[in-house]
Design a protein that fits this description.
By secondary structure, the chain is α+β, with helices and mostly antiparallel strands. A four-stranded mixed β-sheet has the order 2-1-3-4, with helices on one face. It is globular and about 55 Å long. 29% of the residues are buried.
Amino acid sequence: MLTLHHLEYSQSFRILWLLEELGAQYELKTYRRDPETNLVPDDYKALSPLGTAPVVTDGDLVLAESNAIIDHVLDAYPDSPLRPGPGHPDRPRHLFWFHAAQGSLMSIQGVAMVLTLLESRTPWPIGALLKAIFGQVRKLFVNPRLDALFALMERDLAEKPFFGGDNLTAADITLVYPMFAAREKGAFEHGFPNTARWFDRVEAMESFRAARAKDDRDSIVFRF
């Protein structure tokens, strides 16, 4: 049986929601971060080459990386609407957002996170210099790319209710972590009514609520 090794406040929430949406049979093993350092425990790091979440075990298989796990799980559900097949009208849209979640959105958010961490942990006066430099990086690189992505999301969600098209797909599931992280930072406070409705649809879904109950945290994302 597949086991989800679920780390609190991490991307493994995606897999938890996926399994609940599929009605899959699985085991859930939850790990807590160190309350002092927020680092993952050693027994969790031993599962994954990078010590990152999510990780699943399935027999002798140990698999990391969100989208790899999603594809592995959906291979057991070939008729699932969560992965529109070739020829389906929503397939191009699904594929784009399924890969943009990791390849574009989270990579840009990762840059922004690193900049913030370096600024906050570097002593003055070097920290002040870094803040000025990183401000230009945000202005010229980070913010324009995030703005373009968020604008495209708003346009696409004006046409169809989900990132994957007319119905929920794995694109929505893999986007849930970076989208909730962006919302917590205030990215969608003004001028994103279609995106706001997407959040409402997601949070109203029985499978999402079931995953939140099993996650049992005040947030699905890690706050830096």
